[in-house]
Design a protein that fits this description.
There is one protein chain. The chain has about 200 residues and is an alpha+beta fold. The chain has a single domain, classed as Alpha-Beta Complex (Nucleoside Triphosphate Pyrophosphohydrolase), CATH 3.90.79. It contains four helices and eleven strands. A hairpin with a 2-residue loop joins strand 1 and strand 2.
Amino acid sequence: MDDKIPNLREYLNGVRRKLGLAEDVPAPAPGTEGKAAAVLLPLIERENGLNLLYTRRSDRLVSHRGQVAFPGGRFDARDPHLMAAALRETHEEVGIPPENVEVLGSFRGLRTRSTNILVTPFVGIVHGSPTLRPDPKEVAEIFEVPLGALDDPRYRGYHQYANNGNATQHPAILYAGQIIWGLTYSLTLTFLRLTGSARSKKRR
């Protein structure tokens, strides 16, 4: 990779050291495949530094409709491991081919509250200039947030979620009209905490 941002490779190597090896994440145990999913946290180099890519789920989906998420989805029988599931789903949902992603590592996953699915995250830097295209069946919108904004308290707030007449308040990242909350918020904060120096890398 021809690093456009000074010290980008050093930063990425630092991220890699703070994550678990992606190759060490096993495939789901037999009988648990239906409750396993994987997502990719795609880092993209832009003029303003490193951005993290998110999707907003289609309002036509059965679960988590309209919510912000990382690209990814359920483990499939054709996937040799969870990393393959994350890369395949990312390609299907937003158009980033697996060969354009350098996976840096993984960290501990979380279970969804409503469906009890274990979501395993992988972090990767996107190389080249793939054309981002949302799959209209699953993705309503693709957007990016600079790492510096994700770590900026000015963009922190709360989201009030109404379900069956009950309203609950959840911590959230509020950026450019997008609301990052729930499991995606938790994964984002874990990534920022693990990598420590998650700040926007700008040109000099």
